Amino acid sequence: RESFRCTVTSVSQEPALCRNCHRRTKDQGPKMVSKVISFDEVVKTSIETFRDTFGCDPDIAACAPGRVNLIGEHVDYNDGFVLPMALPMVTVIVGKKNYTPSTCEVVTCVEGIREQKKAQFDSSSLARGSPKWLNYVKGVMFHFGQSIPGFNAVIHTNVPIGGGLSSSAALEVATLTFLELLTARKFEKPGDKALICQKAEHTFANMPCGIMDQLISVAGQKDRALLIDCRNLTVQQIPFEAEGLAVLICNSNVKHELSSSEYPLRRKQCQQALQLMGLKSYREATERSLDGRSSTPTGIGSRTHTHINTLQVGAKIGGGMYLRIFG
């Protein structure tokens, strides 16, 4: 669960209080309002909630981290290279078999969820539905590839929901790891686990995401960035540690859902650009093949199909040349 020295700042979107009249004002800007709860607190709350809900202690526990991406946005679904790293913030699932053939009962104690927090369903008949957060769990179960016995489980996380740190991928990977422990099935290759979780998001969350979020959640390591080749799913652990080095993540508290954002549109635009160039993948593109494509009938523009070379950044990070990249 240990990952990186990482500071997370949460910024309020509410107007600040005027010191004189104690009324809200927009003139004083944002203020710090919260901090990320600890891993130990997430685990403690999960176990206590399970005990209070089901009258016994869980005997299975799994977790998976969120991520931050250093470079390579929108490249993972274009067969490119990305360079994310795992975070100390994780999603935790605790539970146990309930010795029914297929009845599953799942509770979330994540704050900020406005849907029902407890749901019962049948593992032999999985379909999208409400609440939305449960679709990520159901999707992983659907693509797991074998029958799943009935179980009870509690989910908790300190990954900010909708904050761009891949809370959905963390939930998917934690679910898959939980199912491995529940059924004694083990996936040897990180890429295989990531692909199942990606399929779950495609089919049950209606989100055409790439592979990056799921693969870094599966394979991320402490003090390492992960260079991912999104064509063949090979990974390289890149040392990312130095005296005085820290990663600062600012949580603006602006919430989003990728499925309702412009993410699906960007993916469609990238595919349109490939078709215009007569290519199957951006890995086949050269600067020459991009000449004359900066303006297209679809309005895609060169912004869609040009980006910084992730391999060069990975090499410089591996050599400790942080200031030459980010300074």
UniProtKB/TrEMBL annotation:
InterPro entries per UniProt: Galactokinase, Galactokinase_CS, GalKase_N, GHMP_kinase_C_sf, GHMP_kinase_N_dom, GHMP_knse_ATP-bd_CS, Ribosomal_Su5_D2-typ_SF, Ribsml_uS5_D2-typ_fold_subgr
GO CC entries: cytosol
Ranges of residues in domain Galactokinase N-terminal: 48-96
Record-linked Pfam families: GalKase_gal_bdg (PF10509), GHMP_kinases_N (PF00288)
GO biological process: galactose metabolic process
Keywords: ATP-binding, Kinase, Nucleotide-binding, Transferase
GO molecular function: ATP binding; galactokinase activity
Protein name as catalogued: Galactokinase
Species assigned in the record: Culex pipiens (House mosquito)
